[in-house]
Write the structure tokens for this entry.
Amino acid sequence: MTRAAHDFAPRVAPAASDDMNDRPYLDDGKSTTAHRGPEMNVMTMDWLDIGAVEDIPRRGGRVVRTARGCVAVFRAADDRVFALDDRCPHKGGPLSDGIVHGHSVTCPLHSRVFSMETGEARAPDEGHVRVHGTRVEAGRILLDPAALRD
């Protein structure tokens, strides 16, 4: 399977009995399976540790692949982290490949601009992208597990 160069390195270790396709993981384009071992991060009851802030370049984006679909995770120039569905509502473009400026991202297909804070398209465009909760603790990005549910 080909992986995009912008994807994360896998960070979530599934339990031995879990099916890899049902577990969220970060994809780096180099691995075909998630790493397993006691050093890897796991989902807690509240938040999912998806990787280090430094894994995302400033003004860059990465993809978290989940059973529900892909989530784009962005790091702004001021080191704030945002997460949105990785699909532009206009034509389905991968927002993780977009250009990050301020707290907005521009879709790479047709240049629609979305607020990474609210998910709303900037006028005159219309549309909305689902926003997912994130927080940073000790340099690690935590994703609200609600992103894994419909």
